[in-house]
Amino acid sequence: MPPQPGQGPGARATVAVVGGGLAGLHAARLLHRAGVGFQLLEARDRLGGRILSVGVDGREAADGFDLGPSWIWPDMQPALAGLVGELGLPSFAQHSMGDVLLDRDPQGQPRRYPGMRQDPASMRLAGGMGALVRALARDLPRPSLRLGTRIAALELGDAGVTLRVVRSDGGEEALTADQVIVAVPPRLLEATVAFTPALAPEVVRRWRDAATWMAPHAKFLALYDRPFWRDAGLSGTVQSTAGPLAEIHDATTASGAAALFGFLGLAADRRDVLGVTALTRACLDQLARLFGPEAGRPSGTLLKDWAADGWTATGDDRRPAGHPLPTARSWITGQWRDCLALAGSEVSEIAPGYLAGAVDAAERAVSEVMARLVVPAERG
Questions:
Q1: What is the pLDDT of residues 279-301, one digit of tens each?
Q2: What's the predicted TM-score (pTM) here?
Q3: Residues near 303 by Cβ (< 8 Å), separated by ≥ 6?
Q4: SS3 state at 327
Q5: In the list 59, 98, 112, 160, which could disulfide-bond 235, CB 3.0-4.6 Å?
Q6: In terms of DSSP H, where are the helices of the chain?
Q7: Hey, what's the torsion of the CAs at 208, 214, 218, 222, to 10 degrees?
Q8: Structural domains present in the chain
Q9: CB neighbours (10 Å) of residue 60?
């Protein structure tokens, strides 16, 4: 979907949704179903945020490999499971049949142990997690979805909140909204958007200190003609301290496209020093040592370093800071509490840093905004 043309000075929306990932799309869908006008503004040239499912060429694909999150747990995440069911998206269990490997010696052979049945099972979506993005966007009005559009500043005034917008072509414009839902990580929001009036110092510190899910990590995939490790009775699951891949799993798709994926156990600065070519070679050498020579001859490879993605990570994300922790404490204080709601996964009270957290945070944000929109009408 190409960026939509600018609306020019004086443009207005009832609600501006900043961020086109899962949280932003879910919020937009809820607003649309309630008959509330919105504009969704996404800095990237695509929807999905940290959800990214691609083909062998690295481009978004309808039957893709997940470079971002891959799993959901329906039994533990009823709201997300309900959304997936409502959208009619088929799912399948993560392949876990077979033995697992523990890799401790970079020069030696791994130890092999019987695998254990997953309970609850990790589930994946047919077509990749990108199927969820496509389904959410499908019923939204296209003129309300604006890509290649980043927010440089938010200014609170008598007429509402004015968003200072910079388009991918370098052009600038303003959009005024009664309410704003920001569906991006708090740390990224603090680093990239100027606020007038300024945020309270304690809010700035809290946003900056909030770890961004996925941001420090890099994900590597090796693609194959067939899942040959299964023939050897292996599940594809590996836990490794020998590296460079610290955790490996079977990434074969529902359609049978075979792959292994792993999270790199190297910090972002070390990944930068090595570069893509050396990292790829090191990963393939490790896979060949673990699964045999065939693993070192993939039909293709994919590497996504989220720490190098400026629409996900800041400089503070280059140092792993653990998983976001749930809290019921408000993320916003002062004048901004009456017109701004955060909806990134990190602010969820039940599942921060997961897809389920994005759904939860979006629903809470929409509920807050809807309550604010109703009150003035009742008073009139």
A1: 999 999 999 999 999 999 999 99
A2: 0.94
A3: 218, 219, 220, 221, 276, 279, 280
A4: coil
A5: 98
A6: 22-33, 78-86, 130-138, 186-192, 201-209, 228-231, 268-291, 355-379
A7: -170
A8: 1-51+129-212+323-380 (3.50.50.60), 52-75+93-126+216-308 (3.90.660.10)
A9: 17
